[in-house]
Design goal:
Structural class: alpha+beta
Strand order of the largest sheet: 8-10-7-11-9-12-13
Number of helices: 10
CATH architecture of the largest domain: Alpha-Beta Complex
Distance between the termini: 41 Å
Largest sheet: 7 strands, mixed
Length: 331
């Protein structure tokens, strides 16, 4: 069955079914002109939004609708995690071709519901329109205590640059899918795991001075922190945590494995700064509570030192802020 056969209003009824609030103060959810929410006392409201466009952010010949739905929510949850917050309410706006099947939409929203439930997010509104391509826009709210919110702008000279997990897995996963490589490991690209618990623990520790999620590549995110904080930095390429799977993919396609981590993006790990003597304490706590390793990959320096990296041969070279740019000239 096609969505043009059931119409917009029946489609809305279908996709809004089984959206039971988690218990937060949702006074009015889907079904009225606006959602009505009771604002939390003593907490700051976080708001983020991301748009995913067919053939720009995903391809239907590579990703299943469930995976696309999951990822569309995950990338927004990651933004909330990077502020030390908890995700709360999602608004989903979607553009669909009239010839789209109802089954496709069911699977798409199944992925959204699954990750929303996993992170206690209530889907409380949105919009549906006709579009020549599949477009998904998510607006996500979150909450954080005023004393725990972490920005990009707090890095201090001498701080360590630290990452959660390992990097390059998403770009390597995309390479596997595009080239049909005989290697496993596409989950970080298709269904990323936002680091909400890790972000909460890091923020509550009181030791983290700045934080950002790695959506555009490590090199780009280091620049974002330095620009916001008015500092320089030195990144040590040899320290970047890279999985064996990423090394195998890089070997298959003749690419340097650290380039996946530096410039690939969509890893949705966290990059943060703290005093070097606090890293081991944080690493022990995060590994114990979340099972996620932390790795020091560099240090914050005075602005006069600019932003550089020590490459695998020991040379100090400029760290180019390369990463995905929607409006960069085509090559």
């Amino acid at each position: 069955m096609l969505i043009k056969d059931i119409g917009e209003f029946d489609l809305i009824k279908r996709i809004s079914a089984d959206l039971t609030p988690t218990g937060r103060s949702v006074i009015v959810g889907i079904g009225d002109d606006s959602a009505v929410l009771h604002p939390p006392a003593g907490r700051l409201q976080l708001v983020t939004t991301d748009m995913l466009v067919e053939n720009v952010h995903f391809r239907l010949d590579i990703a299943e609708p469930f995976q696309i739905g999951w990822k569309s929510i995950a990338v927004n949850i990651s933004d909330i995690a990077a502020m030390g917050g908890e995700p709360t309410y999602a608004f989903i706006s979607i553009g669909l071709q009239r010839e789209t099947t109802v089954e496709f939409v069911d699977d798409l929203y199944s992925g959204m519901r699954r990750i929303a439930k996993a992170y206690s997010v209530d889907i409380v509104g949105g919009d549906t329109v006709s579009s020549p391509h599949l477009i998904i826009n998510i607006a996500l709210l979150g909450e954080v205590e005023a004393e725990n919110v972490v920005l990009r702008s707090g890095a201090q000279t001498g701080d360590a640059l630290v990452v959660t997990g390992d990097l390059g897995g998403s770009e390597a996963g995309l390479a596997i899918l595009k080239h049909g490589l005989p290697v496993e490991g596409t989950e970080k690209h298709l269904m990323p795991t936002p680091r909400v618990r890790e972000g909460r623990l890091l923020a509550k520790s009181g030791h983290v001075t700045s934080m950002i999620d790695i959506s555009d590549g490590l090199a780009s995110e280091v620049h974002h922190i330095c620009e916001a904080s008015g500092t320089g930095a030195r990144l040590y390429v040899r320290n970047i945590p890279i999985s064996d799977n990423v090394h195998r993919v890089a070997e298959h396609i003749g690419k340097k494995s650290h380039d996946f981590a530096l410039y690939g993006g969509e890893d949705y790990e966290l990059l943060f700064t703290c005093q070097p003597d606090k890293v081991s304490l944080l690493a022990e706590d995060i590994l114990k509570d979340c099972g996620t390793p932390l790795t020091t990959v560099g240090q914050i320096m005075e602005m006069s030192h600019s932003i550089t990296m020590e490459d695998t041969s020991g040379r100090i070279v400029p760290l180019e802020p390369r990463g995905y740019d929607h409006f960069a000239p085509s090559t």
